[in-house]
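Appendix B. Raw example, untouched.
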Amino acid sequence: MSQRTLHTTDDGSCTLYVPEIDEHYHSTKGALTESLHIFIAMALRHHPSPSPRVLEIGLGTGLNCLLTLWESRRTQRPVHYTSIELYPLAVEQVLPLNYPHRVAEALGLTADEEALLAADFAALHSAPWGEDVQLSEHFTLHKVEADYTQHTFATPFDVVYFDAFSPEKQPEMWSAERFSHLYGQMAKGGILTTYCAKGVVRRTLQSVGFAVERLAGPVGGKREILRGTK
């Protein structure tokens, strides 16, 4: 998937479009709105652990990672963040997304805080793969360049951001076999959130052991999202 083009979503933030599979990295209804709601509000803030271990399925543009890093800095809550990505984006592909400015604008941050976000965004994309990298006092990043469907993680996770491309585009990512494998690598009480609320996805999550909730989707976006708890 080498060709990607910039697309402005309905909330003014940008995403990338992959023509060869006719898919966007984020919701066209609002990239930033989606990430803040589904992964920060409904997942990270929902889990009670004082120092959660987070797994992101699909680093992609780095938006979810950037928002989590900022949340950990704001709350001084330590986060160990693992992200697995088979097709990493180059820094020159993600910088035009201008996420530090859009996030600062949305959250009402100062110019100094925006500059810090810009440094964070560059750092997370330039961080080496396959090792722990301390990006801030409270945030450790571990990037894995691998196929999620072929990979086993060494430690259990408290929170999973399931942000893969849609089941129609990458059905192998959403199979019962993969969700069962993922369930086994989560800590007791661990939670998983995803933007996809299709009945088949909900039933698949339930079939491997998750207790699944339908939650209201982000403002202006999908009507419902899913949260599964182990």
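End of appendix B.
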